Amino acid sequence: MEPVSNRAKNQQLNLMTKPRKNESGAPSRPRQGKRHGAPARSQSSVNAQGRESRANKREKPAQAERPGPPKNEPKPPQPASPGAVVTRRAADRLRAGHLWVYASDIEKIAPPSPEETLLPVADNRGILLGTALFSPTSQIALRLVSRDALDQAAFLKLLEARLRAAIARRKPMLDEATDACRLCFSEADELPGLVVDKYGPLVVVQFLAKGLLASGVAETCVSVLRRELKPAAIFERPDPRIRELEGLPTPSTEPLWNADPANPVTSTQFQLNGLAFHFDVNAGQKTGAFLDQRANYAAAQHWARRLGVTTRALDVCCYQGGFALHLAQVCRQVTGIDVSRASLEVAERNLEANRQRDNSKAAWGDVDWIEADAFAILRDWSQAGEAFDTIVLDPPAFAKSKRAVEGALRGYKELNLRALKMLRPGGLLVTCSCSHHVTWAELEAAVASAAADAQRRVRLLERRGAAPDHPVVLNLPETEYLKCLVLEAE
Predict the structure, then answer these.
(1) Are residues 470 and 354 in the same domain?
(2) How many structural domains compose the chain?
C-alpha cells in the first residue's frame, strides 16, 4: 500500500491534469497556466473586460457604416456659402465630364443675391464640384465653367484665355477660299452659352445663358475679338427660342463695337470653299448662315462628280443654296426647294454673285428655286414619276426634345422614302439630321426602313458630321448634333 501522503499527492495531480466535465458531460477546456511574472487578474476584472469586449463587437458594424476621415489627412473641401447643392446623379455626371445640371437635380440653392449668376456647386456631402453659371428660369439651371472655386474677376480672366484659345484653334481653318467659321462653340470650347461666328469682316456673338449677361462679359469678348481678328464690326444676335427658355432680355440692335461708327457695316460677302455667300446681320436663321455644313457641301459635290451622277440634282430645304451652289458646279441642272421665299431670294443672289465673279455661265449648271413645302412637293413628284441623279435632304431639326423623337423619325422616313422613289439607279442620296435627340442608330434605321419600303438597296459611302469648327467632345454628347449620311442607291 502507498502511504496516505503519496495517495493524496497523486489524487491532487490527477485533479490538476485530468479534464473536468461541465454540466452537460462534455470535457471542459483546460485552464491556461499563469505566465511567469504575470500579475494575477481578479474575477471582477475578467468579467468587466468581457462585457467591454462584447460591447465593442456590438458597436463595430455601426462604425463600419459611417467611417470618418483618416487621421492626419485634410478634410474634403467645403463649398462656399451661398451656393448650390446637387443630387448624386448630377454630381456623377459632372465628374464624368459633363457640364450641365438640370433644375430637377438641384437639392438646395442659395444665390447671394437675385442678380448673382456665378455659383459654387457641391454634392450632397459638401464636396466642391466647381463653379457654374446659374440660369434661374431654365431647365438647364447650372452650367459648369470651372472645376475650381471662382469669383467674377477670376471667371473673366478664364473667359479671356479660353476665347483666345478657341480662336487660335480656328485660325488654321481660314484662308482665301474660306473666311467664315464658328470661332467659339459653347460647351465644346469650355464656354457654356457663348457662340461666336465670323462672316468675313463681321463677327456675330450670341450670349445664350443668363450668366453671360453679367458685367464685364461682353466687354471681355469684344476686347479679345478686336485684338485677335480686327473685324469691321461685332454684333450681338439673339436666338429667339433660347431667349424664351432662358428668360433673356432682347438685346440692343446696336453693334457691340464698330470700327467706323460713321459708316456702320451690317452686311457683307463671305467665302465658303471658294464660293461667295451674302450675309446680312439682321436677316437669316441662327447667326445668319449654316456654317456647320461647310465640309458636307464639298463632300456632296465630290461624290456627285465621282459617281458620275451629274445630270439632274435636287436640294431639299436648301435655305440660301449651300448644297445647290456646290452641286451646280458639277451638275447640269439643279433645283432648290425651300418654304421660305426670303431664303430663296438670298440663294438667287448668291448664285448671281458667283456667276458674275467667274465671268462665265458655262461653268455652271442651270439652277431654279421653288418655294414649297418639302413633304407635299416630294409626295407629288414621287407619284408623278420625277427622277433625279443626286438628291440632298437637309431639313430643320424635327426633334427639339426627347418627346418629339418618335414624330421626327416618321418625318425622316417619309422624306427619305420619297427621295428614294425618285432617285435613279446608282444615284446619290445625301441625307442629314440636325436633331441631337435623334441618334445615329435611329436615323439609319429610319433610312433603312424607307429603303425597304421603296424596294431599294442602299450602300453607305460615308458617315459625316459637322465641320471641324464645330468640334465634338465625347463627354458632351450634345455637341454631336449634326449627322450626315452619304448613300448610293442601287
Answers:
(1) yes
(2) 3
Whether 355 maps to a domain, the answer reads yes
Q: How far apart are CA 292 and CA 305, in angstroms?
A: 22
Residues 483, 338, single domain; the answer is yes
The CATH number of residue 174's host domain is: 3.30.750.80
* Per-residue pLDDT reduced to its tens digit, 99-152: 999 999 999 998 777 778 899 999 999 999 999 999 998 999 999 999 999 999
Q: Which of 184, 317, 318, 434 is catalytic?
A: 434
Rounded to two decimals, the pTM is 0.81
Is residue 331 annotated as a catalytic residue, yes or no? no
Let me know whether 325 and 462 are in one domain: yes
- φ and ψ of 116, to 5 deg: -75, 130
DSSP for 421-453, written as a single string: HHEEEEEEEEEEE--TTS-HHHHHHHHHHHHHH
Higher pLDDT, 173 or 9: 173
Instruction: Print the domain residue range for 134.
Output: 84-149
Q: Say yes or no: 232 and 334 in one domain.
A: no
Q: C-alpha grid cell for residue 358?
A: 467667274
Angle, nearest 10°, between helix axes 152-170 and 217-229?
Answer: 30
Higher pLDDT, 162 or 36: 162
- Domain harbouring 331, CATH code: 3.40.50.150
Q: Are residues 245 and 331 in the same domain?
A: no
Q: Distance between CA atoms of 467 and 297, rounded to whole angstroms?
A: 10
Indicate the range of 243-247, 260-264, 285-289 predicted with least confidence: 285-289
pLDDT of residue 198: 98
pLDDT at 330: 97
Give residue-wise pLDDT tens across range 113-124: 777 889 999 999
